[in-house]
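User: Please predict structures.

Assistant: First:
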Amino acid sequence: MCELFGMSSKRPTPALTSLSLFGKRGGETADNPDGWGVAYLEGDAFTIRKAPEAAARSALFAKLAQQIHSRLIIAHVRKANPPTAHTLENTHPFMRTCCGRHWVFAHNGQVPEVITPLGCCHPRHSYPEGETDSEHAFFYLLEEIAGAFQNAPPEMTDAWFETLALRSAAIAEYGQFNFLMSDGEHLLAYGHDRLHSQQRIEDDARSVVIASAPLADDAPWETFAPGELRVYRDGQLLGRWCAGMTKLRTPAIS
């Protein structure tokens, strides 16, 4: 099954050790050989590199793991289940512009309902380039977020965080829906049933690493509560929402 990796930090940080361990999950230590992708901030803009091949055997992935210094990263290794073509269009992360921001998204799980003709949660105004339920769900979420932005000023972040948590829970009812998402400022992590986090402090800089499964046993990892959405900025946890829209922590947004 696909796996996710994310990192949010106060300042650009090397991710060689974590990305190298994660890359092995793409066909060596786990059965995810059908593609890989990495989205990372360079300045204020995302760069995405991806390929429909096994990360564990990719010279380009290994090179990127050595080179990337970023304050925000989302990476994915793919297991095409149900089977879809091994193409760039079907390889995560996906990127799209909405609400004056560039967004990236990567998903673990299956929610086939979003691509069936009479299923739920179809994007109404967007046309995904690939075949995956993941990209369809991403476009649907962006359309719902856009509605929240129209009804409140962008600085009122609770409105779209809560919209995202509610719509994510609705999609998760139809399968398995874990994802990482970012607007270039926030790292949003939704753990329907399979997501872990690890807080780190290096050289007085706080960071957080998110992964589908713990990458190593060198420090404790925290398991997400079922149906939990977490929002991070600069490595700091801003807020948590859980299934049923229970706010577990009041966001400390500054």
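Second:
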Amino acid sequence: MNKSDDISSFFSPKGVAIVGASQTPGKIGHEIVRNIKLSGFSGGVFPVNPNAENVLDLKCYGRLSDIRAEVDLAVIAVPAGLVEGVVRDCIEKGVKAAIIITSGFSEVGNKELEERVVSIARRRLRIIGPNTFGVFYAASRLNATFGPGKVLWGKTAFITQSGALGLALMDWTTEEKYGVSSIVSIGNKADVDDADLVEYFSRDPSTSSILIYMEGLRDGRKFFEASRRAVREKPIVVIKAGRSARGARAASSHTGSIAGQDTIFTAAFEQAGIMRAEGMTQAFDWIQALNENPVPKGENVVIVTNGGGLGVLATDKCEGLGLKLAELPNDLKDEIKAITPSFGSVKNPIDLTANADDVLYGKVLDIVLRRRDVDCVIALFCQTANIDPILVAQAMLDARDRDILEKPITAAFVGGHLSQVAYSRMLEKRFAVYPSAERAVDAMYALMARHRQLEKFKGGGELR
């Protein structure tokens, strides 16, 4: 790797300077200092503002050159007209990476200023932005953003081209218990782009999956080549906005990028092995299933449910997505029949009936999970008056923990308050659980797509 290609200083710097730090709460330069300080970052934190003596009890410096300690990363939050000078100061100081928070560049037609800044920095300073809300990286406890101070740690690196959407999702992911290893607001992509970040996170030990919100690309070939290499190591899910002609125009005006023809993106995603999600909910459902489950070893899916209606909905969804519902062998049917009500069904879906309690659920899950002719399980629960959903949730968790063959399980809890409590507890235990049968099946589809990918790689083949 060339020195100019190394972007690790964005994520694990020894020292961070915040140029444009402010003493005024609510201002971007204040919130970034606050977040870095509160996040537990162990490196040096150096506010830079010639008109302040300190910010949040941290000594303030008049300019970068006044800082005697090592500074790897600069977060720049000054007006656009001052950014060029700050970039020159960064180079003089020996700073390796800069996050330019400031807007007012190519996204509003000011391409000349953006190109000039990048030209000054070329080969000496890597830049994320401009027009970004910053970078969060859990492993180094660095929250160099002006977003929420509390972010739930997890396994997914989230790259977003939309600042406002990314900020909203920082809160939403924590509320919904979707942890992240990193969040990068990539902004205008004047220098560091999606491909650079995909390369980095494909090697990052704290990241298991990569999720991208994308409106357009500057260098499509670079991105797709990087992704083809990365998907051998980690799954990549992309939400590509701008499917419609009007949406593509909105994306172009939003960030100054070229959205391109959607059909071209769809074909390129498929060739690169990228999973394209329809929207944010599906993307996070897929990521949750991929993060919290082993990859299936085969394609035989079994549905276990206490509600016939849920089983039918799940069956329809499986058929629509091309998931293979296993034909249960007679010895497996007999084993299940021996412990289930006579009016239940031992076909696939296995219907335990509305009288199924947590004990029965746990026994049946144990039976199917220890079978080598079952590769994946979708467990569905429909709340009834006489069954405690919280106990059923615990039975599912216990069955997963006893699963010595390590099979993927997705689950759905449908019902009222107690089902919601059970659902939340399972999320806290890193279980791939959803509020509908269809979403649990769709999550299993993502796991099966990953299985098929890896089988092609194992056979020495390439994705087409």
